[in-house]
Amino acid sequence: MTRNLRIGMGWDVHPFALGRPLIVGGVTIPHERGLLGHSDADVLCHALCDALLGAAALGDIGTHFPDSQPQYKDVSSLVLLKFVCRLIDQAGFGIVNVDMTVLAQKPKIAPYVTQMRRNLADVLGVEENAVSIKATTTEGLGFVGRVEGIAACAIALLYQTQGAAS
Ligand SMILES: Nc1ccn([C@@H]2O[C@H](COP(=O)(O)O)[C@@H](O)[C@H]2O)c(=O)n1
Ligand SMILES: C[C@@]1(CO)OP(=O)(O)OP(=O)(O)OC[C@H]1O
After folding, report:
1. pLDDT score of 2 more than 90
2. Pocket residue to mutate for ligand 1, from 100, 108, 136, most atoms within 8 A of Cβ
3. Which ligand is nearest to the CA of 15?
4. What 8-state DSSP symbol labels residue 69?
5. Which residues pair with 132 in a beta bridge?
6. How many C-beta neighbours within 10 Å does residue 59 have?
7. Residue 160: what are its φ and ψ, rounded to 5°?
8. Element spanning 96, H or E
9. Which of 67, 86, 141, 158 has the highest count of CB atoms within 10 angstroms of its CB?
């Protein structure tokens, strides 16, 4: 069977701030600071949203969820991700797999990866083995290395479902 495949990438950064929970991949990680944003600032979910939207050529997260809209204030990014999944489904695409990297000097992400993959697979409606999450420091270099924030990048592979518009 030949599948019409589409690839997309996403990238996001949020700064650390006091008095905020640290939420990454839908997991609240105990830490002295969280990430600042209009939403819950889940940097991993945002990168994934953009990868999915990019693969379907449907714009980006800010187009669909403007930070000028009070309805997205502190919203769970899992909710935004669910909405993005509906958009790509309506556009005639299904998910083959997604792969992500969290760039964080601190905290350690590895202990939370299993739960993150579970959360994201659940929202995407795919098996956990179609969701890969990795983490790296930047060896002390740059804004990540100075622990000023966390970055994430994601890549998504989509297939065109039967009867989808070109
Ligand atoms: N925030 C992070 C960063 C890294 N890890 C894990 O440590 C491994 C080594 O990271 P380096 O940046 O030193 O290469 C990495 O492969 C991850 O498994 C992590 O859990 N959280
Ligand atoms: C998600 C949105 C909307 O609440 O706000 P932020 O949490 O600031 O995140 P960003 O990565 O800047 O993406 C788009 C925004 O419109």
Report:
1. no
2. 136
3. 2
4. -
5. 99
6. 12
7. -85, 125
8. strand 93-103
9. 158
pLDDT of residue 86: 98
CA–CA–CA angle 104, 107, 109 (5° rounding): 75
Are 58 and 8 a contacting pair, CB within 8 Å? Answer: no
d(CA 166, CA 154): 24
Structural domains of the chain, ranges and CATH numbers in brackets: 7-36+51-96+110-143 (3.30.1330.50)
Which residue of 48, 72, 73, 77 sits with most ligand 2 atoms within 8 Å of its CB, as the best mutation to test the pocket?
A: 72
Q: Could you read off the pLDDT of 116-138 as tens digits, one per residue?
A: 999 999 999 999 999 999 999 99
Mean pLDDT of 38-66: 98
Two structure tokens written together for 139? 């060896």
What does the block give as tokens for 12?
């996001």
Q: Are 105 and 140 in contact (CB under 8 A)?
A: yes
User: What per-residue confidence (pLDDT) applies to 1?
Assistant: 56
